[in-house]
Design a protein that fits this description.
By secondary structure, this protein is an alpha+beta fold. It is built from four helices and four strands, in the order H-H-E-E-H-E-E-H. Strands 1-4 form a two-stranded antiparallel sheet. A two-stranded antiparallel ribbon has the order 2-3. It starts with a helix and ends in a 5-residue tail after the last helix.
């Protein structure tokens, strides 16, 4: 789930991450604990100049937070468990480049 601290009104990235996981329809029985208040990685996606002019938005940053699954399981088709070797089959190369150092 993608969430903005501005759109949720959460005070911190940690609270926004927990709210995003808890609020996703596939996670009704899921308990997740964010283990650090600081992101372990940040992916920046800068929008095209044309899109920037149309929306007055320059881009988006995705913060990856180290978390621990405390209970429950994902349901539905929106999530998939995979090994770090399989991860490249599911996310783009630029995002993989951003998170790969965190998986060692």
């Amino acid at each position: 789930a993608v969430v903005s601290t501005q759109s949720t009104g959460e005070a911190s990235l940690e609270e926004a991450a927990v709210a995003a996981v808890a609020g996703h329809p596939c996670n009704k029985d899921l308990t997740v604990r964010v283990t650090s208040g600081l992101p372990i990685s940040v992916h920046t996606n800068k929008y095209s100049k044309r899109y920037q002019q149309h929306t007055e938005l320059t881009g988006v940053k995705t913060f990856f937070m180290k978390s621990k699954l405390d209970g429950g399981n994902f349901t539905g088709d929106s999530f998939r468990w995979c090994t770090k070797d399989e991860l490249s089959d599911f996310i783009s190369k630029d995002v993989l480049k951003c998170v790969e150092p965190c998986l060692k």
